[in-house]
Design a protein that fits this description.
Blueprint lengths: L1 H8 L3 H10 L2 H5 L1 H7 L18 H10 L1 H12 L8 E3 L10 E3 L2 E2 L1 H13 L3 E6 L7 E4 H17 L7 E5 L4 H13 L2 E4 L6 H11 L3 E5 L2 E3 L2 E3 L1 H9 L7 E5 L12 E3 H6 L10 E2 L3 E7 L7 E6 L1 H14 L7 E4 L6 H13 L3 E5 L10 H9 L3 E4 L1 H8 L4 H4 L8 E5 L5 H11 L5 E5 L10 E2 L16 E2 L5 E4 L5 E2 L4 E7 L9 E2 L3 H9 L6 E9 L5 E6 L3 E4 L2 E4 H9 L4 E11 L3 E10 L5 H18 L8 E5 L12 H8 L16 H12 L1
The structure holds 5'-O-[(S)-ethoxy(hydroxy)phosphoryl]adenosine.
Keywords: ATP-binding, Ligase, Nucleotide-binding
Protein name: Acetyl-coenzyme A synthetase
EC number: 6.2.1.1
Length: about 675
């Protein structure tokens, strides 16, 4: 036991992984392993031996008080540069002006692929956990490098240039990763659109980014079902005059109609050379953009930089999860969301890790899928969303116990609050009480994990449902209603961050004013997250949820305005208001209050409900369809015409006794109607 511990402390990572491979399963499960699992902070070799950094607190303080030294040192040692930077940062948070690693030149694909392909090309980069269990495919760093280079040459040969935007509408797959890396290699900015978005939503994002190139596949496969991706792209592209070419990858090989713009990706790639000189990108050149929902109807293209994002992705993946060389990292997010970008692709690959690409669902073919995968692939880490835990825990413990999970060391989760029941189940049943549960708070805009219980001082506790501490570079602040910062503990307010860190978003693509208005102008001198939080003793934070009109459904951000805009288009609809309500599995469900032009007959109500759901499916995607739709003659409004959403939320939450003062409404009687109707649907 002592030996293992010292190995960890001395940071001899190779020795640890070879040890892991050589010790028997029995020993791995035994005392020494428990002890080994207890080490909670991967040391920073860069700061070892520096007498200023004796503790975790020293390091965290340094990241805030001397960020130039902290991040400058890490950027030099963790990233590979064509030309190093000569200034660590140029930031003015008051103006939302964020720049890191000035004048540096690098390429993200070199950092994520080449350097590991050269060092140990046989090491596994990707494990593609395809939809059918047991059909996984392995891609080594050498193979990934070949794919990326060929793909990059293919894009170039069709005229895709540095700075161009490339829309990606693909299932989570090695090809998708290779496309992202190929864009990075030639300096094109990728915009991955989750392959569950509708044709209209995809078209909106393609047009906003003014993308000439789209990359998709014939079909997707998820939960045993075929998803007609190319068909969706065809419908989208028909409304996008900017699109000049669509590359089609054969995921299933089923025949799909190929039109004038369509190019077979598989065929074109095959004839390309596997050597493509990487572009020398500036630190601040955009690496990618990713659309996310805000409080208005139009999605925001959150833009991330090359050097700062990549550094932050790598540091957080390695240190929050205590990732060690040779381990297998299983983040089950889709590449269409930020979690997929940072913890399936850029974080793990920039650390030379083995990362899992999960194509399936938590319940396919049965609720044991995750744990069967953990056993089959011998995963060291799993990173998932609380919604899947809530779903799976209802199915019973047998689905977990059936499988050997002793390879797991860390259990991560992200996307929504982890309730105590889900935490306990994750910790006690999935982890057998031997793994740490690492709940991480962050956002598309933060680029990587901002609050998490790890890394931390040895012995620091993890507490269910309020487990979070700021990561390096992050200085959280809670603001009161008057915009003043709250001090001390046991306070609750708007969650802001008053420091700058390399991974933070740089702009909203094409709309910097909206970027400033959303994140920097609400509290001058602070980045505003849109979430509320509570600060407990010992600096622990607990997230209380969104403070704006964004709903978090199964960890997916959906703007209420987007759903309202879609339903408002129905000819029978006069007005709508959408709010979130507590949902057992999804965390939050979508509740729509709909005012119709004319009274509708009760027998027509279900038809109209179906039509409204179908409009939302067409405009946004199936995942944004309302769970409940209530038809009402009016909405609760103030004299100035503002809808009182607070009241709608109480109605939707079954709490009519907490409605509070409704006397300021133009027509208070409408509330009674809502309460009655709510009880009936
Ligand atoms: C929510 C996902 C509670 C939060 C990485 C945030 C969380 C939004 C947590 C960002 C957590 C994320 N506990 N809430 N651990 N993690 N959230 O941009 O409301 O898809 O603002 O990024 O998810 O969602 P996004």
């Amino acid at each position: 036991a002592k030996y293992l511990y010292q190995v960890g402390k001395n940071n001899s990572l190779l020795l640890i992984s070879s040890l892991k491979n050589s010790i028997t399963c029995h020993a791995w499960k035994g005392v020494s392993c428990t002890h080994f699992r207890g080490i909670t902070t991967t040391p920073f070799p860069e700061f070892q031996g520096d007498s200023r950094f004796k503790s975790h607190a020293d390091l965290h303080n340094a990241s805030l008080q001397n960020p130039d030294h902290f991040w400058g040192t890490l950027a030099k040692s963790r990233l590979q540069w064509f030309q190093t930077f000569n200034q660590v940062k140029d930031c003015d948070i008051n103006k939302g002006h964020i720049r890191w690693f000035m004048d540096g030149k690098l390429n993200a694909s070199v950092n994520c692929v080449d350097r590991y392909a050269e060092k140990n090309g046989d090491a596994i980069a990707l494990i593609w956990e395809k939809d059918e269990p047991g059909t996984e495919e392995y891609v080594s760093y050498r193979q990934l490098s070949q794919m990326v280079n060929k793909m990059a040459n293919m894009l170039k040969s069709f005229g895709v240039c540095r700075g161009d935007r490339v829309a990606i509408y693909l299932p989570t797959s090695p090809v998708a990763v290779a496309v992202m890396m190929a864009c990075a290699r030639i300096g094109a900015i990728h915009s991955v659109v989750f392959a569950g978005f509708s044709a209209e939503a995809l078209a909106g994002r393609i047009i906003d980014a003014d993308a000439e190139t789209v990359i998709t596949s014939d079909e997707g496969v998820r939960g045993g079902k075929i998803i007609p991706l190319k068909q969706t792209v065809d419908a989208a592209v028909a409304n996008c005059p900017c699109v000049k070419r669509v590359f089609v990858y054969q995921r299933t090989g089923n025949p799909v109609p190929m039109g004038k713009l369509d190019i077979s990706l598989d065929k074109e790639m095959a004839s390309q050379s596997d050597v493509c000189e990487p572009e020398k990108m500036g630190s601040e050149d955009l690496l990618f953009m990713l659309y996310t929902s805000g409080s208005t109807g139009k999605p925001k293209g959150i833009a991330h930089s090359t050097a700062g994002y990549l550094l932050y992705a790598g540091i957080t993946q390695r240190h929050v999860f205590d990732y060690r060389e040779g381990e297998r990292f299983g983040c089950v997010a889709d590449i269409g969301w930020i979690t997929g970008h940072t913890y399936v692709v850029y974080g793990p690959l920039s650390n030379g890790a083995t990362t899992v690409l999960f194509e399936s669902t938590p319940t396919y073919p049965n609720p044991g899928r995750y744990w069967e995968m953990v056993q089959r692939l011998s995963l060291d880490h799993i990173y998932l969303a609380p919604t899947s835990l809530r779903l799976l825990l209802k199915e019973g413990n047998e689905w977990v116990k059936k499988y050997d999970r002793s390879s797991l060391r860390k259990l991560g989760c992200v996307g929504e609050p982890l309730n105590t029941e889900a935490y306990d189940w994750y910790n006690d049943v999935v982890g057998d009480g031997k793994c740490e549960v690492v709940d991480t708070w962050w956002q598309t805009e933060t680029g990587g994990i901002a609050l998490a219980p790890r890394p931390s001082a040895p012995g620091a506790k993890i507490v269910a449902s309020k487990p979070m501490r700021p990561h390096f570079g992050i200085q959280p602040a809670l603001m009161d209603k008057d915009g003043k910062e709250l001090t001390g503990s046991n306070v609750q307010g708007a969650l802001c961050i008053k420091s700058v860190w390399p991974g933070m978003a740089r702009t909203i693509y094409g709309d910097h004013k909206r970027f400033l208005d959303t994140y920097y102008n609400p509290y001058p001198g602070y980045y505003f997250s849109g979430d509320g939080a509570h600060r407990c003793e010992d600096g622990y934070y607990q997230i209380t949820g969104r403070m704006d009109d964004v709903i978090n459904v199964s960890g997916h951000r959906i703007g209420t305005a987007e759903v309202e805009d879609a339903m408002d288009d129905h000819s029978q609809v006069a007005e709508t208001a959408v709010v979130g309500f507590p949902h057992d599995i999804k965390g939050e469900g979508i509740y729509a209050f709909v005012v119709t032009m004319e009274d509708i007959n009760p027998e027509d109500a279900d038809t109209l409900r179906d039509q409204l759901k179908s409009i939302v499916k067409t405009r946004i995607g199936g995942f944004a369809q309302p769970d409940r739709i209530l038809f009402t003659p009016g909405l609760p409004k103030t004299r100035s015409g503002k809808i009182m959403r607070r009241i709608l939320r109480k109605v939707a939450d079954n709490k009519p006794e907490e409605l509070g003062d409704i006397s300021t409404l133009v027509d208070p009687s409408v509330v009674e109607i809502l309460v009655q109707k709510h009880e009936m649907i």
